[in-house]
Amino acid sequence: MAPVRNWLIPVDGSALSLRPIEWVLSHREDWVTLPAVHLLSVQTPLTADASRFVNAAQLKDYHREEGLKALSDAAQRLRSAGIEPELHVSVGDTATTIVDFAASRQADQILIGTRGHTGLGGTLLGSVASKVAHQTQIPLLLVR
Questions:
Q1: pTM (2 decimals)?
Q2: Which domain holds residue 111?
Q3: Could you report the average pLDDT of every consecutive run of 10 residues in the chain (144 residues)?
Q4: Which of 33, 42, 47 shows the shortest CA–CA distance to 108?
Q5: What value does the CA radius of gyration of the chain take, rounded to a whole number of Å?
Q6: Minimal CA–CA distance to 62: which of 87, 45, 80, 84?
Q7: Count of domains forming the chain
Q8: 1 located within any domain
Q9: CA angle at residue 118 from 116 to 119, to 5 degrees?
Q10: DSSP for 2-45?
Q11: Which residues, other chains included, contact 108 with Cβ-Cβ below 8 Å and sequence gap of 6+?
C-alpha cells in the first residue's frame, strides 16, 4: 500500500476537531515520510443583512481572522511535534466545502473527528462527518 502523502484535517477549534491531530501525533512514528497536513477552517457565511453594514473586504478579514483562531491550537500542536501544517480558511457550507477543498487539493485522505456518542438516542457521527462521508470519494478516517 502506498503511503498517504496529502491529508486534510478540518478544524473548528473544538476539542472534538483536535482528535485527528492527536491521532496523527500518536501515529507519527508509523510513517517513513510524514504527509503534508492541510488544516481547514470552514467559516459560516454571514447573512445578506450583514453586507449592509460591513463591506466585502471587512467580511473577508473577519472570516480569515476567525478561521485562523480556530486553527491555532491544532497548528501549534503539530508544529510542536515538528510537523508544519498548511493553514486554510474557507467560507461556505461546512461539509460541501470540506469535500470540495479535499478534491481541489488532491487529498489522499480526510481525517475528521466524530461525536463519539453511542446508545439509544445517540449518534456515532456528527452531522458534518456524516455528510462528508456521504459526499466524498476520498478515503475518510473517522477519529473518535
A1: 0.89
A2: 6-143
A3: 78 93 93 90 83 83 96 97 96 96 97 65 66 95 92
A4: 33
A5: 16
A6: 45
A7: 1
A8: no
A9: 165
A10: PPP-EEEEE--SSHHHHHHHHHHHHTGGG-SSPPEEEEEEEEPP
A11: 4, 5, 6, 7, 35, 138, 139
